[in-house]
Amino acid sequence: MRPYNEVIERKQISISEAAMFSKYLWDNYLNSGGKETVRIFEDTLTGKSENEYIPMIRRLHQAYCPAESITDGLCEDLEHVFLEPFYLKDGTYSIESGIDELLNALLDEDEQLGEQTYKLALLFITSLSTDLACNLPELFVPYYFSYNFNIIEKIFDEFEIDLPEIPVKSDYRGRVYYYGELCAALMEFREDNELSPFELCAFLYDFAPKCLGGIDYIIPFDQLPEPKAAYFIGSSPKDTLYSSKTDWITPWQTNPEARAGDMNVMYLTSPVSAIDSVWRCVSVGFNDPFFYYYRCAYIGCPKSIPRTSLKEMKKDPVLGDLPIVRKNMQGVNGVELLPSAYNYIVKKAKQKLPLLDYYHSPENPSINREKDVEDQLVNPFLEKLGYNEDDYQRQLSLKVGNHNLLLIPDYVLLPTIKRSRITAAGVVETKLTIGSQKKLEETKSQARSYARQLCASFIIIASIEGIWLFEQSDDFEACVFQSTWEELKNADQFYALQKLAGRK
Q1: Residue of 185, 141, 174 lying closest to 3 (CA atoms)
Q2: Predicted confidence band of residue 455 (pLDDT cuts 50, 70, 90)
Q3: Which of 108, 200, 285, 311 could be disulfide-bonded to 297 (CB atoms 3.0-4.6 Å)?
Q4: Three-state DSSP state, 68
């Protein structure tokens, strides 16, 4: 990888004939309009002309970002860049020193770089990165993936670019300079594939997103899966990302564990101070180091419900007991709602909205053998945990030691073969009945040998009496969850299990 601190002298850049990317698809891309995209990046970043730039970026951005408000904000930021361009002083720069120079230019004479500067820089990463790319295109690429770090992750994964570890939320300085780390990784990719800086930009914002399906990560409203969880989210009534339009899709700060289909109850802050609507996640949640609030998912399908004020919630026999309500809804974004509380809100609103409804054990099952436990109880149970038949393998043979001793677990969840070694997320062992603690311990010992071999995170033991769950953290010693099949009908009970063993 190009050293992060490698220095380069800033000077007038003379671009020779652009090197061609060796791959067949890249050649096709260039010959079918891509050269024009490269030209516009080159003309803009070398200061020849920026007249075509913003319309092009708008078109490219809409191909991978479904939120019109985000595209509009991006283009407004770019207009300010070209109205008030920033110029680095002549000299030699590394990625880090280039960022330092730009950040220091934002400060008053008596100020020093600190947390507030870094927080401000995150809000203006579009402008700052464009300024740097216009000054040093051989070191920097403009960053136009705000609210879309999921696309960056997919690009890096698909094209085998090493993605630097994302800084934690509280490390604002690290999050700003993480942009430099991304640039260093992209420059290595550029050099390995003999791309010009401007071809790299075309690759990043046109070629790669199209290869990955554009906005295919957004699930259409009519294809959303059943919700698995519900969260509170909050907004000012004047927030530009908020709308009551039924076809509105927007990024939002929510729980990073959110999955497509999950429910979000919107609380509007003062002067409304009330629950206002229910939204659905139309993408999975992800962490975005350049999103000020870090945690992000795309939400849509807003459904207005009769408002319930904070004052009314505090007096409500169910909602009044919620910790977030007692905290006056401070820090509301991403707070988990137990299924019972969410279902209560929906039923109280008398609106047609999905409920959190997980598991229904069969009525009067006819269970006379272990296979009946598997077919009638375990299979539908795993389905509700999010595992389809392709996600597990039954009766998988595991060879152990030189004597080829065979271990055969009943269910192996999410098996993965790498370098002739099989690993898995979890193991399920079934018995017709677990009639005593001794029988439970014997079964656990059996399942533990499977789990150790597979480096599994958890064990589930299932019988006609119910299920028991053990975790790797204590070598599967203590039971961390136990329930009868009847008790799993309780949504809160099943939700607790889902957090432990549900398909992520």
Answers
A1: 185
A2: very high
A3: 285
A4: helix
